[in-house]
Amino acid sequence: MSTPLSALTLALLSLCIGQASAQNTGPKTRAEVQAELQEAARTGNMPANDESGRMLNEVNPSAYPPKPVVPCKTREQVRAELEEAKRTGNMVAAGDQGCLLNEINPSAYPAKPVASSKTREQVKAELEEAKRTGNMPANDESGRLLKDVYPHLYPKK
Q1: Which of 27, 54, 100, 112 is the one with CA 20 to 30 A from 46?
Q2: pLDDT tens by residue, 37-87
Q3: Chain-centre distance of CA 107, in angstroms?
């Protein structure tokens, strides 16, 4: 293991094994690992031999094939998103505040839909259960629950 290439090979093999374990797939065959190593060497998806943490294709991009281009949004999609953001106020307000327009002036924009996750009956039932078991904050600044402050008043588990 004195050459940098063999160290890189070992690092890549351990990475591949780790990924296979994480995906809960069976162990890879020798041929699969060798094919992955050849592909990584071809595309430059191997760690550079320095302390930068970058890949070879990032250090020397002209030596490797270009990465596939991710399709961008069309002009119409971007314009539609901009119009929607203007309509809902989901745009950063001018200035150094970093707030959205609908946060600064909520009455000027449509209200955000709020979906209740519990019914009124469910909340009432939870409150009654908390009262019965003492799972409510005590009326002091300790942060303890009633069942902890007055254990003799509430049922044991």
Answers
A1: 27
A2: 999 989 888 898 888 888 888 888 888 888 888 889 999 999 999 999 999
A3: 32
